Amino acid sequence: MGSILTDVKKMIxxxxxYDHFDVDIMVDTNLALAxxxxxxxxxxxxxxxxxxxxxxxDFIPESxxxxxxxxxxxxxxxxxxxxxxxxxxxxxxxxxxAEQEWRIISQLET
Length: 110
Prior knowledge:
Blueprint: H1 4-11, H2 22-38, H3 56-59, H4 64-81, H5 87-109
Helix pairs in contact: 1-4, 2-4, 4-5
């Protein structure tokens, strides 16, 4: 699996080589990771990223759950970092996040 920071940047439309917003993106990503941890994903003691060297598999082992978590983290960062200005698009993004939350919790319960 790839770098958390690199993948999040790609999913929110920021080029990998463009590092001007890296600190902001890492803060937002760490918030999303903390929310995922509260949902029961990742190390129980918490987890944060500090640069592009931190991999998804450092947070959670490769499993079907990982794909739900990656999507959740990227969508959550998108909502925090660059929310849509269109009301319908904003509601759609929120609905996608809620769906991923449900899928993660459902996967954890099985």
